Task: structure prediction
Amino acid sequence: MDKRTPQNIILTGFSYTGKSQVGKEVARRLGWAFVDTDDLVVALAGKSIEDIFAQEGEERFREWERQAIKKACIRKDAVIATGGGTIVNAQNRELMAQSGIIVCLEAKPNTILSRLEAEAKRTGNPLIRPLLSGDSPLEHIQYLKASRQPHYALADWTVHTDVLSVEEVSQEVLRGWEQVRRTTAPKDKAYTMVHTATASYPIYVGLGLLDELGKRMAQAGLSGTAVIISDSDVFPLHGSQAQAALQEAGFTIHSITVPSGEDSKNLDNATRIYHRLVELRVERGHAIVALGGGMIGDLAGFAAATLLRGLPLVQAPTSLLAMVDAAIGGKVAVNLPQGKNLVGAFYQPRLVLADVATLNTLPKRELISGWAEVAKHALIADPQLLDLMETNASALASLPPALTAQIIRQSAAIKASVVS
Result:
């Protein structure tokens, strides 16, 4: 399909593949509206779908359906569940393709029939779906589904639902949405999204974004008190900028610093952070801002995950490795004498904000380590990104702002898709 800026998720597929249930769950996770075109048809026609078929015939139903698709596709930030035959019409397909990302929910004919029979048994009604009635519903499903399959195959993403729960299908829809969105959205788009079973959150990458820290946190629903946790190297360089951004957004600000280096990532420092947070009378709605590299992201994230059964966490990575890897995915931990990261949790942040300007203060060795991680991402998942890095290999050492932001953004999107 043509390049576009996707603004909706449109679910297609045969009846009883789960479009309505999954659509509602995906909309809930994204905070979007849910639209069922069958409901729009009923509202437009003033009668049930069964009555439309019985009184006016399928051709008239398809006319109502086209009107419903037009009405649904002008929306933005909506999950739209369409009828099983909607995508067959070329005009409908064009509207759907321009309006958003099309995800097809698939199921085998036997699965569809068993779900249909289960609903009929549950509701006490006969099999009243207009196009599935008759003496041999399985044969009718097989024939009708086969006739529509070439159109379903045009979807941007397909999820096979036979053995998956609604939650699992919803997760796969979100994974597909992020994957397709990453390849179709403009390359200079400022953010990508992570979707997990417990949280969805944005990753912002750009130049000068630390000045927007408070604004982005407010957009994520955070307010009140924010505690910056950083280390003795990073805080003198970027702490005042982060504090000013938070103050401008109306936050009450505190800060905690620990010595720099991996040796600080231990239970002793976690305990010191706990004590200081308790002294500050931190409450469950107060945010922890992890300002630093991977060590701070782990240590501050571990404290946020465990104190008061969880405080809102914001990752503000200042190292290249943290921007493309450590700050994304919610892995937080501290070390024990016996080994690294032996005590930890999976705890997702509210947002990740990566200001590429902070990379200018990194030692060369840390930059090389970060670029190696980006190259690994590219080798695994994005040949175009690898070509971009190879073409500009000599320039990357000087961190050209626009190119650096583009490459980090694409690499972070790969990590986000893997996490999702």
Observations:
- The CA atoms of residues 46 and 273 lie 62 Å apart.
- The first helix runs from residue 19 to 30.
- The two ends are 23 Å apart (CA to CA).
- The mean pLDDT is 90.
